[in-house]
What does this fold into?
Amino acid sequence: MVDTQGGEGGSFKNTGIGGVEVSLKYNVLSPYKDAIGLSVGGAWEYRSLYRLDGADIDQHSIVPTIWLQKNWLDDTLVLASKNKMEFERRKGPGVLEEEIAFDLSLGLSYRVAPKWFVGVETRYQSDFLSPEEKGLDENGNYFKEIAGKPSSWDLGDFAIGDQFQYGLYLGPTVHYAEENWWATAGLLFQVKGWGADGEEHSRDGYNWDEHERYHLGLFFGYEF
It folds into this structure.
C-alpha cells in the first residue's frame, strides 16, 4: 500500500461506512426517440475514512457526469458510456490533496432473446494530483513539500497536475428488462494499471495499491 494519507501503509482488512453521497440526474435526450441519448448529472460526496487504508480524512468531492447512449438495429445493439470528472479536496494527518480524476466507462450490449442483453464493458479510472505534505521534521522544524505538479480546481486557478495512478478494467455484463423495471450485473477484471511508485513497481503491469482485482456490480431500476 502506497502511503498518501499519513497511514501506516501495508495490507489491511476492514469493513465500515466511509462517507455519504447525494446525486441528481436529468434526461435531456432519449435514445429511443432522438438520434442519441443524453443525460447530465452531478454529485456531492463526503468521506471521513480513506478507502485505501482506512485513515481518518476530511474529503469533499464534486462530480459532474455525462451519460451517452446510441441504439441500432431496432434497439437490438446498444452502445453506452458514463463519463465522470471528479474534483476532490482531501485532508489527512499532515497531508493535503487536491485531486482531479477521470472515470470513464464504455459498454456494448446485444439483445440475444426477448428482454435479455449480454455485452462487454470497459472502465478507465485515473487520478491527477501531487500530495502536499507539511508538519515538523525530526529536528522539530516546520516543512512543506509538494512533489511534482499539483492539481487545483479553485476559481481562477484551475490546473491538472501529474498523473498519480490509473486502472483499466474489462469484463462481461448481462441485462434483463421488464416493462417497468430492469436489472444489470457485471464482472470487470483489472487488465492493466500503474501506481504512484511508477511502472517499475506496478506489479507485473497491475495496480493493486489503488485498485481492486475485480469489480462486481449489480444495478436495479424501477420506473414509477
About this structure: Residues 23 and 43 are 4 Å apart (CA to CA). The two ends are 44 Å apart (CA to CA). The chain has one domain: 19-222.
